[in-house]
Amino acid sequence: MPVLRNLQVTLEMIKWEHSVFALPFALCGAMLAAGGWPNGRQLLWITIAMISARSAAMAFNRLADRGMDAANPRTQARALPAGLLTPSFVRTFVVLSSAVFVLAAAQLNRLALLLSPIALLVLLLYSYTKRFTRWSHLALGFALGMAPAAAWIAIRSSLDPRILLLTAAVTFWVAGFDVLYSCQDWEFDRLYGLHSIPRYTGIATALWIARAFHVLMLVLLASFVLAFSLGAFAFAGVAIVALLLVYEHSLVSANNLSKLNAAFFSMNGVISLVFFFFIAADVLIRHL
Question: What's the rounded Cα separation, in Å, for the pair 156 and 150?
């Protein structure tokens, strides 16, 4: 059926499986807010909210960037520039995904529902930041960094300022690996008039900025662990994340970006899952 084929292509286009980047951090926020595992209903709707929000954001990004993707040899094979999907179908997908996100927020609590349009606005407008600022990497980071704070609100219907340390950590983590990823397009960005850190600094300096972002992430993660008085498991998680980041950066250099996809996709998925495992273990042990 055409609709099912289009849906399959859309899910491939938005890389829905990469929801693993932010979902574990959201679950960290939810577990801290709940003092253990959230109940099944909360866990279900938080997961639905995370996946639907990311799906809406990614599909909207592909829609907004379809002209640039068609001009960039690296992205010409994506679904929209390749003609595998129509813009109207992707627009419908964005609307439906956004509606599911708002529905999920409504199932959690009133504050989550009231804030859901603001969250959607941040997620969707990120796609345009690269048109006017080199710091669009931080905008993307904040879009994902909202996840733990949003999950806290979903559980408590309030916001504890301490969870914003995790929001800031995720912001700089994502910004760092987005700087890495954008190194492969620095020349296209310059020619097409787009803004990114590598375009302005060159690849070598951009790699150092990505490292600085990740060092700041580690400082924020340690501060987050201290703020919540977490224990040895949580600190072990931060230490392992540090080692994984060192390995991630060892995969790329100014003269060799051939392993960039491994650094971007594989390692960052591992980092988020590892951190969640150690935070979850710490929280559960403390509440036995």
Answer: 10
What pLDDT is attached to residue 262? Answer: 57
Q: How far, in Å, are 185, 231, 237, 238, 278 from residue 243 at the CA level?
A: 27, 19, 10, 9, 14
Helices and strands (H and E) in the chain: how many:
14, 0
Query: Rounded to whole angstroms, how far apart are CA atoms 146 and 144?
Result: 5
> Which three-class secondary structure state does DSSP give residue 218?
helix
In the chain, what are the domain boundaries?
A: 2-286
**pLDDT recorded at residue 288:** 64
Ranges of residues in the chain whose predicted pLDDT is under 50: none
CB-count burial class (<10 Å; 0-12, 13-18, 19+) for 31: buried
The CATH number for 2-286, chosen from 3.30.70.3040, 2.30.30.90, 3.30.450.20, 1.10.357.140, is 1.10.357.140
Q: Which three-class secondary structure state does DSSP give residue 253?
A: strand
174-218 tens-digit pLDDT: 999 999 989 988 889 888 889 999 999 999 999 999 999 999 999
User: Which residues, including other chains, have CB under 8 Å from residue 112's CB and lie 6 or more apart?
Assistant: 49, 105, 106, 150, 153, 154, 157
What pLDDT, on a 0 to 100 scale, did the predictor assign at position 174? Answer: 94
User: Partners of 65 in the beta sheet?
Assistant: none
Query: SS in 3 state form for 136-164?
Result: HHHHHHHHHHHHHHHHHHHHHCCCCHHHH
Question: pTM of the prediction?
Answer: 0.93
What is the structure's pLDDT at 264?
63
